[in-house]
Write a structure and sequence with these properties.
The complex is a heterodimer. Helices cover 29% and strands 0% of the residues of chain A. By secondary structure, chain A is mostly helical. Classes of the chains: A mainly alpha, B alpha+beta.
Chain lengths: 38, 250
Amino acid sequence: PVRKRAVAEAAQHDKVPHPVGFVPPPPPCPGKIRYFDI
Amino acid sequence: VPAAPPAPLGCDDPESEAAAEVAVNYINDHSHHGYKFALNTIKDIHVVPQGPNNYIIFLELDLLETKCPILSPTPLANCTVRSFAEHAVEGDCDVKLKKLDGTVSVVASKCHSHADSSEDIRQICPDCPLLASLNNTEVLEAVSAALNDFNSKTTGPYLRLLEIGRGQIQYHPAHIVAVEFAVGATNCSAEEAKVNVGACQLLPEDQSNFGFCTGTMVKRPSQDLNVDCQLYGHQVSTQDIVLLSSQDTS
């Protein structure tokens, strides 16, 4: 059986690093506030 | 190969905004009390494919109350959203829509509204008037006095109260009760009403027979009363009672 930790470690190694200066897109929701937030 | 599921919509995507506009117009068109609401934020959106060009859309919306009464003919785009300092009212709505061959329509909607917390207002604006409950005795007294005052001076039809929209009370630096209420024209003139007010019936539910009044009753340091009413069919605004306040200021 594959231990969870091993999967996590493997995933960590496979993770492709973002290019320098990469700005993640804003989360799709919630959207913009048109007036003010209460 | 089954059609790929549509890319998840973002809350600020044009398609989401178009669906939200349909939802807000539906909500305002199907409300019979209070004020019109404007879109503040699209909080969430989920699209569920039902078949070719057939989707169900679930929207979660944050709305804000405007100053336009629900019966006002003013287009929503021209309605000012009540500011934070005027004790804003927020509407939370869950709306289910259907998009069939590109046409979006509302299947169901559920909303509930609530005023901003008094503590929030107090923090920002210690002396701002706060919303009072609509059955507050000072609010009821101010509405009654304002409407009686208007009817005693109007040259137009005798107006009856339809509903109180809003009441705000301020205690400093003066004690002022500000009220807003919806009215309906009756089949009586103000003179006829003085004779037999019981015979005055509301005119048929035609927009031109509905109107809206705003009134302020100053209780301290001096007493004063201002009221202005306008019927949607025509402008029937009295003189500002302050001009005649010699009869009303004690």
